[in-house]
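Mods, move this if it's the wrong board.
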Amino acid sequence: MKSIEIKNNESISIFDVPVLVYADFFEFVVAMMKKKEVHCASYFAYPIAKKLKFICCLADDKAKNLHLLSFELEIENNKKLPSISQKIAAMHIYEREIAENFGVVFENHPWSKPVRYPFDRADTSKTMQNYPFFKIEGYDTHEVGVGPIHAGIIEPGHFRFSCHGETVHHLEIQLGYQHRGVEKMFLQKKHLLQRTILSENIAGDTAIGHSLAFVNMMESLYGIEKNIMWIKMDLYRSLALELERIAIHVGDISNLCLDVAYQLGNAVFGALRTPVINFFQLWCGNRFGKGMLRVGYNPHPFTKALYERLIKILEEFDIRYMEMQHRTFSLPSVSNRFQKCGQLTKEQMYAIGAVGMAARMVGIERDVRQSHPFNYFEHLVYEPVLQETGDVNARAMLRNLEIQKSMAYIRIMLTQIYRLNVDEPQKYNPEIYTQKLKKNQICVSLTEGWRGEICHIGVTDETGELKHYKIKDPSMHNWTALALALRENEISDFPINNKSFNLSYCGFDL
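Not the wrong board. Structure tokens:
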């Protein structure tokens, strides 16, 4: 057996994960990832005794399961391995991170450069100042550097454009300026509440998406048995996730309108975001949904008053939104800027392992709500929204259609909340905050955040303590898509392309 198949949020013994020799590991990963329906959800390493243990999680979207497999490497060895990225380009980012963290040399890696610059990286001589930027030489070429300091609230990142006149031939994106050591903090912070708050702050615009992955995973590692009483809590959690999706998507459409000088769209869409995030304030006391989710119970019950208030908000939102989206996407001046700008192909997105919106904009049906359902999506038949053209217009339209679809699913959830005559676990259980996790376990938790697939993996040791914690934000895959989107476009097209992806710096710089 070369892998073990599990379901999303299923906890199993770490000893059940097959340990292969590297040649077999290499062969299996390459063979699996040549299938269009398979992508790598996570690939990482952590030290055990005098070895490095490598874990790979492959997501089979058609079979709706996850393949776990591993291999081990003696730390004292020269730590050289053939690069899987030679065969499967999408593995480049994982191998680069492992190389940076542990000094493993992946031979013939096509792009072996630092990723995040953690303080405890294997080679501290590799710094921001000597990052090996790709160069295009020629009499008429020039370079333009943007960042890492940006105007407003944009986080730090450096963008190096190689241009011929106004045309961008290559864009390289260098991140890692705010590496916070979040994954290590999950091990250092021993109290469950500390870890929960940490999960809400992995990426501030995805507080629900990341904390949902965390609480689902921890409930599995604690061995909390779920019964019919949990169905309402799953409803509330899924409802919150879709509200977060609506809030961010409508804000992004507002920003896209700003970049093409459509001020009416910018103003109206921006205003429409406010009542959605203000509803979070009413529900849990925080406009971004922080404090909403807790392991094992629901601290903020969805009352009848909240139900009635949300119904009214959706009714008002629906009327104003539908009129404004029709005006925006039928306006020639908007369409002329959106269409064929930053265009990408399905082949490119398969090659980089794109997830979420970056995959669906070219027709790749990659959505965790369908392929690896979680919470109330286990009870729904979800069909992803797809576009085909892969340009700014596709990314904007995808947001537009997902807003409409999320509103429809929220109405289904609201109907179910008061149709079900069951109570969800609501009372605080102090025992959860003192008991140990199940020993020697591994659990993979996937959620579909508004950007795309979020993956949290927890590994426990023989005492029931967290031994390793791994986080993957969809931006880990999708920053490469932005770099590709600028090729053969004018440099003035960068802002609209950047906002059409709206990728996370902090979600990447963990």
